[in-house]
Amino acid sequence: MKRIVVLGAGESGAGAAILAKKEGFDVFVSDMSKIAPRYKQMLDDHQIVWEEGQHTESLILNADEIIKSPGIPETAPMVKKAVEKGIGIISEIEFAGRYTNSKMICITGSNGKTTTTSLVYHIFKKAGYDAGLAGNIGNSLALQVAEDPHEYYIIELSSFQLDNMYEFHANIAILLNITPDHLDRYNFEMQNYVDAKMRIIQNQTPDDAFIYWNDDPIIQRELRKYDIQAIQYPFSELKEKGSIGYISEGEYTIEQPEPFNMEQEQLSLTGRHNIYNSLAAGIAGDIAGIKKDIIRQSLSDFPGVEHRLEKVATVRGVHYVNDSKATNVDACWYALDSMKTKVVLIVGGKDKGNDYDPIKPLIREKCSALVYLGADNKKLHDNFDALGLPVRDTHSMKECVEACYELASPGETVLLSPCCASFDLFKNMEDRGEQFKELVRNL
Ligand code: ADP
Q1: I need a labelling partner for 381 at 20 to 30 A (CA). Which of 48, 149, 195, 317 fits?
Q2: What letter does residue 179 receive in the DSSP assignment?
């Protein structure tokens, strides 16, 4: 009997273990941290052996294959040992892909993945398609393949998942953009991160589709290196050479495969970045043969996703917007770009090696004040104080919201779009967004 070891027992690890068990493997799950009770229960229910708080070498390095959770870096000692021993390491998505023939719609990019994935899912569900949501959101692909199979899977793929994918193949691949992110996991080599993202098109055939943002300089450069087999569907904000999706005279337009258009004003998501996301999702729906009136209706009634440019409340004429998910500089750029009023911007947190230069012109143009929110705000002072705006230094969400309340004038917007990860002061970006919303609602 072949032995599969699963490293990391979160959503993807637990799902992978259950599928492996179902497929008749000898399965062992090992997690260096505590395993959440819900996943312990799932493993116990399936009689899967697990350990937590340690990695027992003798029970791991006898694996025929290892399924590694995306959160575990390649530099983790046990992963290095497995590589040295020549044990194959794959991701949960790669593993699940072996046991299904369903159609895979895969979405990646540095920003916009969750929004676009949720929007594609919304369109497919509205059309009555049997679709499952997987990857970074929803239940793991492996668990659905094992216990709740669907005809289509709409999968959000991070670069960490793509890293350990080899044979998997996307029927429809969407590549939204590539900008610097997670460089700490890629040896601070941008090209390593870019190569991971480009894996979204590996193994595609002429029967497949590849949707991508035509204006991205990195994608453009990379495409020259690949012999792309899939039918290409490039999109851009405005009509330009090669693009088959764009905005023209206020009309959201898709030329292929089926010509489609609607008024831009009818799109429920606002902001320039969401034009891209709406184009990518609409093209995917069009390729899947979904009727025009369904696509039109879905693009105009999509409620949006929490923590992404989410309107919280208007207090004394000041609008509060939660964009806690903006954990890199590019995401904040698009958030600021979409603002129609002056902004009090909340920035800061755990810096992943940010270069703040790209947002300085927009901050100068749009912001009336800056509120720094982090355990250590020195880099923010060094970067932004020279712009000459009022700044406040805060170290908790309570202090931060109080500072914003004092600084913002009626008609302005307080925008939490912090360019940084949240782990210095918060559990995660959701916790940061929840605390912000709670405090704003109590103002
Ligand atoms: P991801 O899942 O890739 O992190 P999200 O949809 O959660 O993407 O959005 C993350 C952040 O990026 C949000 O702050 C959002 O405002 C911004 N954003 C969304 N779509 C795009 C895009 N196409 N280009 C740039 N920024 C975007």
Answers
A1: 317
A2: -
Sign of CA dihedral 104, 110, 116, 117: positive
Distance from the alpha carbon of residue 133 to the mean position of ligand 1, in angstroms:
18
Question: Taking 80 as the threshold, does the pLDDT of residue 6 lie above it?
Answer: yes
Concatenated DSSP letters for 53-95?
A: S---HHHHTT-SEEEE-TTS-TTSHHHHHHHHTT-EEE-HHHH
Q: In angstroms, rounded to a whole number, what is the distance separating the alpha carbons of residues 174 and 47?
A: 38
Q: What is the CATH number of the domain that holds 197?
A: 3.40.1190.10
**What is the number of the ligand 1 atom nearest to the C-alpha of 325?**
14
Q: What is the pTM of this model?
A: 0.88
Distance (angstroms) between ligand 1 centre and the Cα of 272 equals 11
The pLDDT tens digits of the residues spanning 380-394 come to 999 999 999 999 999
Summarised one tens digit per residue, pLDDT across range 314-348 is 999 999 999 999 999 999 999 999 999 999 999 99
Task: Indicate whether 141 and 243 sit together in one domain.
Answer: yes
- Mean pLDDT across the chain, nearest whole number? 96
Residue 112 CB–ligand 1 contact under 6 Å: yes
* Residues in Cβ contact with 226 at an 8 Å cutoff, skipping those fewer than 6 apart: 198, 201
Same domain as 256, residue 149: yes
Work out the average pLDDT over 29-34: 97
Residue 114 labelled as part of a binding site = yes
Pocket test for ligand 1, best of 216, 325, 337 (most atoms within 8 A of CB): 325
From the CB of 114, is ligand 1 less than 6 Å away? yes
345 and 398 within one domain: yes
To test ligand 1's pocket by mutation, which of 106, 161, 193, 273 has the most ligand atoms within 8 angstroms of CB?
Answer: 273
Rounded CA separation 286/295 (Å): 8
**Which of 301, 334, 356 delimits the end of a domain?**
301
Residue 187 confidence (pLDDT) above 90: no
- Determine whether the shortest distance from the Cβ of 397 to ligand 1 is under 6 A: no
Residue range(s) defining the domain that contains residue 426: 310-441
Question: For residue 214, how far is its CA from the centre of ligand 1 (angstroms)?
Answer: 17
